[in-house]
Design brief:
69% of the residues lie in helices and 0% in strands. It is built from three helices and no strands. The radius of gyration is 27 Å and the shape is rod-shaped.
Length: 72
Amino acid sequence: MTAQYVIIGIVIAAAVAYAAIYFYREWRENIRYRNYGCAGCAFYETCKRKKKEKHNPPTASPKQKSTQALPK
């Protein structure tokens, strides 16, 4: 009878540990993305890069500007 309680205790402890790890990982992902709609999305990095490029378009460096031909 005692062996049954030990086995049941181990199974329940494993289930609680699994649930705790799962919720911790989900919570950590939600904090990382700061947008619950994007959490876990495979395209998160691509969307983030596109938004950054949209708001900050690449500019030519001063060295590139000086080599351009001036209009006559």
